[in-house]
Structure formats: structure tokens, C-alpha cells
Amino acid sequence: MPNRKLMTLDEFTIQETRKFPQATGELSALLRDIGLACKIINKQVLKAGLVDILGKHGATNVQGEEQMKLDVYSNETLINVLRNAADCAGVASEENDDHVCYDDEFSNNSKYVVLFDPLDGSSNIDVNAPIGTIFSIYRRVSELGKPCTMEDFLQPGRQLMAAGYVIYGSSTMMVYATKLSVNGFTLEPSIGEFCLSHPNIKCPENGKIYSINQGNTCKYDDGMKAFLDYCMENKKEEGRPYSHRYIGSMVADMHRTLIKGGIFMYPADKSSPKGKLRLQYECNPMAFLVEAAGGIADTGYGSVLDVEPQELHQRVPIYIGSKNMVKKALEFAGTKESIA
Ligand code: AHG
Ligand code: MN
Ligand code: MN
User: Fold this and answer.
1) pLDDT single digits (tens) 79-98
2) Where are any strands of DSSP class E within the chain?
């Protein structure tokens, strides 16, 4: 047997399961299935420039946004792969109005539901910038043996079993978190497996990068404007001005924030009083991941993970990343009344 250095996603999740005698391994199987769907999506993303897959699909999704062909492809791939998955009763997607309940005998006895943003940052497809898939896994609260229900999907982020993302960037990576740890796996194309490359990721407590669509400044409140001034202030001894980086794909901006430290913000503003990003598909999974890595995710009126979801496509403001940077931003933003 050659001396193997690579540990695949599957091997890793099985080893993790062994630490907990009561664990049954369904979560490992589900992560493998999500990984499989993302490998299929990745294959299509890689040839996006070659085949006639670029461009608009011509339809709009539930939020009135244009869907790209790859959005549709990614959505269908995830729904179809998870239909055959080990332990998934149903899914909810940013691209569907309602949740999809698989409703067959096997699925009705499955313990988990999965939510996803099948293709995040889709406006970046045409310019070959990083895009991604974001996913969350909840344990069902509805009765086993029956079809899953909406309440399975409207659980607060605090109840997540696992969450993560796959980034289709200069390499393809899956990063996922359980309450215990956050680990990153890089796709090794020659064997088609995600392999452990970033064990036990910790989000640095401090950072030097702020990430926000600064073009919206005129729509921000005074607290937010003051924080941006603070980030740009010339205080060499304190490491300011900070650098500004904004890709416009949450997955890519958050991946950098997680690894290098920093803060990512999508605040409420005059035209989006509830913020833009979706609680159940984008904010909760990223908040769960960042908090498991030692960072903070806040809406400006409390932890993202404590928001009680009212509807599937709900939006919330978000300030997320390195602990000390987020705390500083919240000092400026002030504690706001709930606006969700
Ligand atoms: P999606 O492509 O899933 O609709 O998400 C786009 C999101 C998110 O990825 C990104 O952080 C944000 O929209 C960018 O919004 P602005 O263009 O308003 O900055
Ligand atoms: Mn998105
Ligand atoms: Mn999307």
C-alpha cells in the first residue's frame, strides 16, 4: 500500500463520524451527494466559455431576477441528485418559489432537508470570475414517515447540522462546517475527489480588508458611512487604511474573508431596507460557517443565526467575518430595532 497523503472528503467525514458512537453516517453520505452534484456543476462551469451555455435563459426567478442558463442547470442538478440521496426528505432552492418535497416512501423516512443557492454570483459567469454553490443541512422537525413540511425549512440558523459552499474559482473547493470545525477540500481533477487541503480553518480575529458594494454609499445610513470613513482613514500605526476588495460573488468574497480575515457587509440601505442577501440560502450558511471558525455574523440587531425565519426567501442585512472587525462595524452601525 503506497504511503497516502491525500484524504478524500468521504474518508474525512467517515473518520469524523467514528468520533461519535451515536452518529449513523447519514450526514457523511449527504455531504458526499452534495459534493457529487457540485462536481457535475463544476464540469459545466469549466466549459462555460466553450459551449453555448453562456447567456440568459430568458426566465426570471421568484425574486424577479434574470436566471442564467447555469443557474437553471445547477438548480436541476442539485434537485435531481438529492432526490436519489441517502437521507434527504426534500430541498428548498433560491431558484424555486416553494420547497420541493420528494414524497416517496424512502424520502419520507429521511431525517434531513437541504437548502441551497445553486449558483451564487451568477452575474460573474460571463466574465470568468469565481462563482459558487451554497448549501445548508437541517434535521427535520416534522414527523418521520410523512412528507417534509415548510417548518423543516424555516428553522433558525442556530439549528443547522452542517453548512458550506463549493467555490468554482482558480481551483474548485468545498468548505463545510459542523458545529465542531470548518474544513476545506480541494477538488483533485485526476481522481475526481475533493481532498482535505485546509484542515480546521479559523477565521483570523483581525483583518485588513473590508468588502462591500461601496457604490451604494449614498444609500447607506450615517453609521455605515462613518464606518466606511473609519476603514479608509489614514492611521498607519493601526494598519489603516484597510484594503477594499469586492468580487460581487458572496462565495468568493466570503472565502477570502474566512481565510485571510476581514469583514464582508451587505447592509440595509434606502432601496433595500431589509438588505439584499437571503437569510436561508446565503446568510445563515455563511454565518454558521464563520461562527464555527471563530468569527461573527450579525444583522445589526443580533446574530444572524438567531433570526426566526418567516418565509423562505426572506432577506436580512449582514455584517460577517473577523470578530474584532465585525464588532467595530457594529459600534458604528449601532444596535438597530429588528427590521426583518
Ligand atoms: P446570486 O447570484 O445568487 O443572485 O447572488 C448574488 C449576490 C451575492 O453573491 C453578492 O454578494 C451580491 O449579490 C452582490 O450584489 P451587488 O451586485 O448588489 O453588490
Ligand atoms: Mn447568491
Ligand atoms: Mn443564486
Assistant:
1) 999 999 979 999 999 999 99
2) 56-60, 66-68, 88-93, 100-101, 112-120, 131-139, 162-168, 172-177, 182-188, 193-198, 209-211, 243-244, 263-266, 296-298, 318-321
Contact yes or no for 340/274 (Cβ under 8 A)? yes
Residues 156 and 251 grouped into a single domain: no
Cα(119) to centroid(ligand 3), Å: 4
What is the domain extent for residue 270?
A: 209-333
* CATH number of the CATH domain containing 186: 3.30.540.10
Contact predicate 131/119, CB 8 Å: yes
Residue 178's nearest CA partner among 139, 141, 204 is: 139
Q: CATH number, domain at 282?
A: 3.40.190.80
Among 216, 250, 272, the mutation site with the greatest number of ligand 1 atoms within 8 A of its Cβ is 250
What are residue 193's phi and psi, to 5 degrees? -125, 145
Which residue is closest in CA terms to ligand 1's atom 3?
120
- Residues lining ligand 1, judged by CB closer than 6 Å? 65, 94, 117, 120-122, 213, 248-250, 276
Q: In the beta sheet, which residues pair with residue 188?
A: 193
Rounded distance between C-alpha atoms, residue 57 and residue 166, angstroms: 23
Q: From the alpha carbon of 117, which atom of ligand 1 is closest?
A: 3
- What are the pLDDT digits (tens) for 232-267? 999 999 999 999 999 999 999 999 999 999 999 999
Q: What is the pTM assigned to this prediction?
A: 0.94
Question: 4 lies in a domain?
Answer: no
